[in-house]
Each structure stands twice: as structure tokens, then as C-alpha cells.
Amino acid sequence: MRGALSNPIIVKELRERFRSKRTFWTLALFLLIMGGIPLGFLIVNPIKADTLGQNKDLFVISAVIHYAMICFVAPALTAGAVSGERERQTLNVLLTTQLSPRTIIWSKLFTSLAFTSLLVIASMPLYSIVMLYGSVSPEQLLKLSLFFVVNILFLGSLGLFCSTLIKRTAVSTIIAYGVAFFFVVATGLIFYFLGEILIQLSPERALARDVWNLPQLQYLAGINPLLVLSAILEDGTLPAVRFDFTPWLFFSCVYLVLSMLLVSWSAYLLAPIKRRWRWSWKK
């Protein structure tokens, strides 16, 4: 922690980001959306004694909106972290300092994720409204929080990688959202279409339901955030997959590895002098 506070990039960007009026209004708008929708739900469907401990709709709605806001905010905060320095012509100056490219990348990621984490932490008390309805265990809330943290780290790393790879901030932002769309939506569609095709090809209709439990489809479902979120919420709206492994744990391991790869690749791309790996049988 002391090393982070002595890092000039972290100190500078944290001061600039958290002292601006835009941060205040962004946080206020985020909390207004996150608190306004559950409040509207309570007005439309007031708490009744016979629904206590049974109704999970408010919990599912809050979690889905929370996740949608993370998908919208996390890539945008990092997609211009390096390309913005390049457009302001300050990146070369930054590379002449004693900070290594790896330190610069981690500093940019830390400051961007600090703000996204602030949004999530500030909105977590709103789940106390959800607890009024019951039917939500502390274990579910813990899994959901871990799920959000992993997604913030991955989407932030993805935006930072696009910002390092592409010179223009607008283009890097669009590509970051496109790749995020592939992981969030396209993998789920591939899972659904493959399952339906296998069901149509199945000669015995009685075995069609077992198609969703094939190991290959289970692994594909395990990397789709929406299916994993559905498994955490236990809402049963998406195709029921009986996982042979813990889905949120598998999802966390896969996306943490992807995040580390993206960060390492970003540091390699940012290095002014790149080490070339050559394989030769001659010594």
C-alpha cells in the first residue's frame, strides 16, 4: 500500500479523478439509478407478509442492473487510459521516467478500477432493501460480490489492452465494447444455438434434455457471465445447466487468468524496446 501511495501516476490520477465534479455527478447518477429502480419496484409491488422469504424478483433485478452498469462503466474508464496519454503527446514523456511499462500499466488499471470499485461499494448498501424480502442468503451476496469484482478486473483489463493496442481513444472504446459484447452475449448465444442444434440432431427426444449437461456445453456455459450470474441468483430463467463443477469458481479462475494475460500483453506492447524471442538450434 505504501508503494502504491508513493507511485506518482497513482497519486496524480487519483487526485484528478476523485476531486473532479464529474466523479461526484457520475456517482450520484449511478446511485440514483441503482436506488430508483428497486424503489419503483417496491411502489408497484409493496411488501406483503405472504411474500416474505419467497420473492426473489427484487434481488434478481438489482443484480442484473448492477452487472449491466459494470459492463457499461468498466471498459469506458480504461479504454482511454493509454491512448489518451498518446493523444495528449505525454506518453513518450511518461516512458522516459524511471517507471517501467509494467508499473505504468498497473497504475493505470489501479486508478481506473478504484473508481469502478467505489461505484460498486457505494451501491452495495442498497441490497439491504433486498434483504427485506428475504430468500437471499449471505453466501449468495458474497458470491455475487466476487462475481462483480472479477468482471470489473476483466473488463478493465480488456479496455486497457485496447487502449494500449490502438492509438485512438474512440476506436479503442468501440473495440473494447465489441469484445466485451462477445464474452457477455455471444458466448451465451453460441451455447444456446449449439444446444438447440444438438437437440434437433438427437434421435431420442427423451435424451434431448441431457444435451445441456454435456461437458463441452458446461464449459462453454461456465465462461458466459450471464449464465454464471443466473446460476448464482438461482432464478431459473435461462437454460438449466447442471454443472459438474462450481460455476462461479470456474468463471473466476478463467477470467482472472485472462485478465493477467491482457495486463502482461499491454505492458509488452507499451515497452519502447521489445524483446524478441528467437528459437534456434544453434548455440
Automatic annotation (TrEMBL):
It comes from the Bacteria. The keyword Calcium does not apply. Keywords: Membrane, Transmembrane, Transmembrane helix. Pfam families: ABC2_membrane_2 (PF12679). The chain crosses the membrane at residues 24-44, 64-84, 105-129, 141-162, 174-194, 248-271. This is ABC transporter permease. It comes from Brevibacillus ruminantium. The lineage of its organism: Bacteria, Bacillati, Bacillota, Bacilli, Bacillales.
